[in-house]
TrEMBL record:
Chain ranges of the RNA polymerase sigma factor 70 region 4 type domain: 7-47
GO cellular component entries: DNA-directed RNA polymerase complex
Domain of life, per lineage: Bacteria
Biological source species: Butyricimonas faecihominis
Keyword Transcription: yes
GO process terms (BP): DNA-templated transcription initiation
Keywords of the record: DNA-directed RNA polymerase, Transcription
Stated name of the protein: DNA-directed RNA polymerase specialized sigma24 family protein
Keyword Cell wall biogenesis/degradation: no
A GO MF label: sigma factor activity
SUPFAM superfamilies in UniProt: Sigma3 and sigma4 domains of RNA polymerase sigma factors
Taxonomic classification: Bacteria, Pseudomonadati, Bacteroidota, Bacteroidia, Bacteroidales
Length: 73
């Protein structure tokens, strides 16, 4: 089941615009702070936060059905 979740997450991440995907992966999966990402990319922290927010909204909607299926099992 865990591999199914990661597989679906990988697919959903691939559907995101690059700028949203990169911020989500760096912040959530690699544990970089927004400040660290900002310093290395030159992108303002608020812009990074906004991009991550849009990524989360998309991922939440995209993975909703998988979540429901797993609850039914």
């Amino acid at each position: 089941m865990r591999s199914l979740v990661w597989e679906e997450l990988d697919k959903a991440l691939a559907e995101l615009p690059d700028e949203q995907c990169v911020v989500f992966e760096l912040n959530e999966l690699q544990n970089f702070s927004f400040k660290e990402i900002s310093e290395s990319t030159g992108i303002p922290v608020n812009t990074l936060i906004s991009r991550k927010r849009y990524a989360i909204l998309y991922l939440r909607e995209r993975l909703y059905n998988l979540h429901e299926e797993l609850l039914d099992e």
